[in-house]
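ASSEMBLY PREDICTION REQUEST
Request ID: AP-0331
Submitted by: J.K., bench scientist
Number of chains: two
Total residues: 503
Priority: normal
Notes: Please return the full assembly, not individual chains.
Input sequences:
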Amino acid sequence: MLRVLLPSWRFFDDSAGSPRLLLRTAAFDADFGPWRALAFAPRSAQGSSSGPDTSPGSPSARPVDSRFARTSEGALSRLARAPEGALSRFARAPEGALARFTRAPQGALRLLFHPLSGLRLAHYSLVEHLLDELAELDPSVAADVTALVSYRLVLRLVERELASADERELASSVAIERRLRFQFKVTLFDESADVAAGLRGSLARHDASFDGGEDLLVSSIHLSPTARFPP
Amino acid sequence: MMLSADAALHATACLLGVSLVLQSLELLSIRRELRDDGVFAWPVLRDDYARAPAVVRVLFDASLAYRPFVGLLLLQTVVATALPWCPGPWPVLALLLTALLVCVRFRGTYNGGSDAMTIVVLLGLLIARSGEDGTRATGSTAARVGLGYITAQLVLSYVVAGLAKLREPAWRRGHALPRLLSAHQYEAPPGLRAMARRPALGLLASWAVITFECAFPSALFHGPRICLVWLTLGLTFHALNALTLGLNRFLWAWLAAYPALLFWSERLAGPT
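STATUS: Completed
Returned structure:
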C-alpha cells in the first residue's frame, strides 16, 4: 500500500534482464519436454467459456481456511457470500458485450480501452512479486516456498495456461494425456547484451532455445489440474 | 485569461472520472480472472492478511471476494461517471476508498504507476473539495493546496523517472529502450522494435525520453504557453506509450493531473 501512497516514480530504470516464466510438461511416466515460454497474453479472457478444473482434489480448488470461515460469520460475511439479484446475476453471467472488447483493440481504440494489456502487465507483476518474496526469505530458515501467496498465484497462472493449451489441443484432436505433470521456472535473461550486439530481443527468443538464462526459481513438479490418467 | 481554480478542478474531475470509468470497465471485462477459479482468486489472496486483525479480514472478505468486488467496480463506475457533477468531498472519498481496495485486491497495484497517479489525483481533489462550503472551491486555500499537491507529484513523476534513467548506463548508451520495446510483457509492433534496435535511433530516442523527463519542471515556471507545449509533448509521450507498450491506463491517469499543472504554471510564471 505504501507503494501507492508514496510512489517512487521510477519507471523502466532497471538495467537487469527481465524474468520470464517457462513451463515444461511430461506424460505420466515419460521425461519432461523442453522448456517453453509462457505467454502472458491471457487466452481464456478472450471469451473462452472454460477455465481450470475446480473439482475437489484439483490444486485450484483449495478449500477456504476454516479458521477464516469461522471468524467471518456475521452481517458482513453474509454480504460477502453474494447477494442474489441483479449484481449476482451480472457476476455469474458469462462475459458478454464487455468481453468482445477484451480482444485486442486496434488503432486509436487502444488509447481508450485495452484490458488485455493491463492484464498482461498484472500477470507479469505476479512473477516479479514472487521474486521479491523469494528475495525477502531468510536463507537461514527453511521455508515452504509453495506456501507463498505469490507462488500459488503464479501456479494458477501456469495451470490456466495448461488448461487453455488443452482446449486448443482438444480442438485439434491431439491427445491431452501428454501433460500429466508440469513444472515451471523463472529465468532471468540479460537481453541488453543481445540488443547491444544487434541480436534478437527477448520476444524473438519465444520460439528459440531458452538455454543461457539464469534460473531464479525452479518449481517442484505439479500435477496438471486437467490431467487425464491413462486407463 | 487565467485558468480559475474552479475550472481546473472541474477539468480534473472530468478527466479523473473518465480515467476511473475506463479502469473499472477494463477490470469488469476481465472479471473471470478474479473469480475463485481465476488467477487472482480471493481465497488465495486473502492469505496475505492471515495475521491481520479479524475485523480487517472480515471487511476485506466483504468487499474483495469475487461478487462484492464486482459490485465495488460497478459502484466505482457510477460514482466516477457522476464525479464532475457531484460537488463536495464525499464522492471523491468514496472513489479513493474503492481505488485503494482495488490496490489491496492486487497486492499493491494493478498496473503500477497508473494506480499511484490515480490515488495522487484523488487525494489532491479530496483536499481541494474539503474546503468547499457546499458551493464552490474557487480561490480557496484548500483548492490551491490540492492542485499544488497534484502538480508537485506530477512534476516529480517525470523528474524522478528521468533522473533514474540518467543514472543507468544502459539508458545513456541507448541500449535500454530497444530492450524495453523487445520485452515480452509489452506488445510493441515488430517494425518499431526493429527500428529502435538501430544504434543511432535507439540512442536518439533514449536521450529524447531522458531530456523530456528531466526538463519537465520547465513546464511550471515559464507561463501557460510554454506549459501547454510541455503538456502537448507529455500527451504525445503517453499516447505513444499506450500505442506501443499498451500503457493506456497511464495516459488517462497522467492526463487527469494536467489541469493542476496548467493552473500553477500561470501563477508561478515570472513577470513577462
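REVIEWER COMMENTS: Chain A has nine helices and five strands.
SIGN-OFF: pending second reviewer
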